[in-house]
Amino acid sequence: MTDPDPATSRPDPTAPRPDPNAPQPGVTQHRGRPRIWRGEELTEPMPLSASLRRTPYRNPRRMEAPAEEQTVRTALELAVRAGELMLRCGGSARDVESSIVAVATSAGLERLEVDITNQSLLVQCVSPSGQLHTLLRVVRSTSRDFARLAALHEFVEALVAGRIDLRQATARLRQIRRHPRFWPRWAITLSYGVLAGSVALKLGASVPAVALALLSAMLVDRVGRVLASRGLPSFYLSAVGGAIATAVAWGAFVLGRSGALDLTRADSAYIVAGGIVVLLPGRAMVSSVEDAITGYPVTGAGRLFTVGLTAAGIITGVAAALSVTVRLDQAFGLGASLPKISVEGAGVALPVLVVAGAVGAVASAIAQRTRRKLLVPTAVLGGLGTLVTGVVHQTFGLGQLTALTIACVLIGFGGRLVALRMGAPGLVLVVPAVGPLLPGLTIFRGMSLLVSGSVIGQGGASTAAGLTILLGAGAAALAIATGVVLGDLMASPFDRQIVRQRRARLR
Fold this sequence. Notes:
- By secondary structure, the protein is mostly helical.
- It is 63% helix and 4% strand.
- It contains 18 helices and three strands.
- A three-stranded antiparallel β-sheet has the order 1-2-3, with helices on one face.
- A hairpin with a 2-residue loop joins strand 1 (111-117) and strand 2.
- Keywords: Cell membrane, Membrane, Transmembrane, Transmembrane helix.
């Protein structure tokens, strides 16, 4: 056989080109199907770095891909340690994942997988040579440390902006881990008392009742600290705290009946409500709902279960104390029966509501160990939340849950934008701002009806009504959490300019 002549083997330029839409051998053709009914082409999986698009760490500056395996390991350990510390300080799963991806991407790592499941953190990376690196961290305890959370946010920002290299980033993260906590312990105890007093004031308590709420919350904190140092689980700490708050309020009311204190029947409920708000885990509640909504159902379910256990502990303690106090009242004829009050509290002037909300937000922020420069915006957001809730409910006549949701959406929206401008995640402003809005009075009123109706059999109270009120408390907590998350998601497209300006200042 002879080889074909090259001149004759060239394609004829005058010959018609093949039709790309012509049937191909071995490929099933859908004959007669209109183009409008054809499905779109299969897309490739989105790279993990694309998950940074709606975060403050979008478009990170990449270092050169590490050539040595030890450098890859160092970069991966840096990302995992940052995520572990953020998870320990109370960050949401979405923030933790975006921080890990941002640190790893900035360090030059590309093929990365991150899995966050409640308390565990699993990260895998493939080096340029094809070797697999895997790191696992388990966070067995969490702490309230918003100042450290803000420092971690600034650390990731600096790395993403290209201001520090891998060696400097490792040293800076070590410094963040070893930095002492903000605020002394006595300030934390006092802040819990101020938060309880502000909640009682917002509900319409008298001055003696506000002072008793403050002292009761401080006592609960000190007793809880002693019991926690002995290894008592958080469920029992919540139960003891709820029982102490209820017992103090009932004892104060008995003294008021004897003329030693000037307290009304409703004041005792307001004192307990302030103590319940201090015990409620607002940070975990917001994070659990955010995790469930944003695609981390297992982590969200785990955190939500923890929130439920804490709430169950509070309810158990309140119920136990109420049972004892009602029996004592019947046995000795003290005339200190359970107060029949509205779950919305007494009518309070709008300026008092705003001041109480602002003071309560600042106290909650100090209890979460936030930075001092963040106290003023936290106070503004707390006052804004109570103002919007009062105006929408009292002026426009909308329901309490609707007003609460609108206020929390505004808090979540403004909290993200203001916090990013000040170099912190939105969580550090939003969680303290919604603290005074938590349904402490609703929980107490529902439990009082349950105890008097099912345990003691006191007339005029209904077990069904108590369950309904407790469900209303759960709905209020859900409205707060979902409203905050919605506001944060709505604000994410508008923070691009803020992120660009901060990154320009960091370079």
